[in-house]
Amino acid sequence: MRLDVHDSFGTNYSPSLNVSYAMTDEITVKAGIARAFKAPTVYQLNPLYAWSTRGRGCPTGFPGPCDVFGNPDLEPEHSLNMEVGVAYANDDGWQASLTYFHNEFDNRIEAVYVDDPSYPGSLFRWGNSGSATVRGLEGNLVVPLHETVSWSTNFTAMLESREHEYDQPLSLIPDYTINSSLRWEAMENLGLTLSGTYYGEIQPRTVDHNNDPIPEEEQIGRDPYGVVSFALDYQINDNARLTAGVNNLFHTQLYRTGEGANTFNEPGRSFYVGLTGSF
User: Fold this and answer.
1) What domain count does the chain have?
2) Residue 147 burial (10 A CB sphere; 0-12, 13-18, 19+)
3) Which of 35, 83, 149, 158 would staple 101 via disulfide (CB 3.0–4.6 Å)?
């Protein structure tokens, strides 16, 4: 149970209940339900505060610059989150799980367009846009291939990710995401990891925040694509650890297709080195 006491929205309870049952030594079923409360921030409530962007933070279909003003009449956002799943684990290191999740959002807080022809650019005000549903499946698999080699994979598959008011997809959520990695403990103090992530298609919005149709050539979605990375970690001594790697090994690149917040870049190959000390 969580208790929030807010100056503007009073007392709010966020109860949660989670249960699990071990059917056997290796199989466990679990379920949970929780209610969440999210109050607007001080900035979102302040009508004299404006958040500005030259274009890259503007919603789809709106040219920059954009200004987002606070709204003292905002209501808090509520959600109901439910999940049920089953997990398997044995003494040999095999692990597997599958979970169904279902989240209902009400009074979602987002930037709402204000129609003001005299305003230079696009004007928005924080508002409550209604309800949305996010539901899908999450899975995980760990396979010990050898004493020093293990393979792990997890995925998220969206069954529904839509706002109800205009029946539109929520932005930047792919249909599915798969992460897989192969790890080799090459030496007692050296580990090598080859990993890959594959993103499914992102569905574009077909109407803007005023329910006006977006021309097909301006509808911004994204095709599926994958990224492969490599990393190593070396334990120098009890107090120092070295890490290094290459992100996006094959230099997969996506370029921004618009100036809105619903577009993005995949920057290509990058390298990193890190040293961690503990005392």
Assistant:
1) 1
2) exposed
3) 83
